[in-house]
């Protein structure tokens, strides 16, 4: 079903005057930009949450502590690299069900921090510019196979893997249909309060078509039960 998202921006005449006088900025344009960013981030977050909760290909657990928890005999740094093995195992679950491999990963900031430290992680060439981006962004690639997205609002201790190929409709895992990308009202000036009001709306629908196109890895804080 289609869902409408609506936000309202409101500012005073004094703010509009001061922003232009001291910063040479137009309050209305800044408000519209801020509202657009907020709605985009919320829609992206809803889509990521829908994919995560609808992932049916399988889940693989990875434990932060080695099986025997003996740091004297186990190379902890080498053990941490087995996180990549868990990702490959989750990817394999997608392949067994849909005959395709995942090509992207999304995780929260802490998990992405772990991934960055792996030897087979390559930082995105545009990372210097990406650091200026608020919210989700491409961080890099893992083993040349997975594009890694860093999402500060994603489910903690979870990695979501998925497959995307716009050239193959029958491999569509999920759909996000934007019926109305953006609708802006006129700017209304209230003479009683000497302030301004502007509305913004967008209408979208989201649906997971094939849940088996997505799998997860769960990061478990604790000792690996496998001996």
Quick overview of this protein structure:
With 227 residues, this protein is an alpha+beta fold. The chain contains 6 helices and 11 strands.
Description:
With 227 residues, the chain is α+β, with helices and mostly antiparallel strands. The chain has helices at 13-23, 27-54, 76-80, 82-98, 109-116, 127-130, and strands at residues 3-12, 59-65, 104-107, 121-123, 137-142, 146-150, 158-162, 174-184, 188-190, 195-208, 214-223. The longest helix has 28 residues, at 27-54. It is elongated and about 70 Å long.
List the helices and strands and how they pair.
Layout: E1 3-12, H1 13-23, H2 27-54, E2 59-65, H3 76-80, H4 82-98, E3 104-107, H5 109-116, E4 121-123, H6 127-130, E5 137-142, E6 146-150, E7 158-162, E8 174-184, E9 188-190, E10 195-208, E11 214-223
Parallel strand pairs: 2-11, 3-6
Antiparallel strand pairs: 1-10, 3-7, 4-5, 5-6, 7-11, 8-10, 9-10
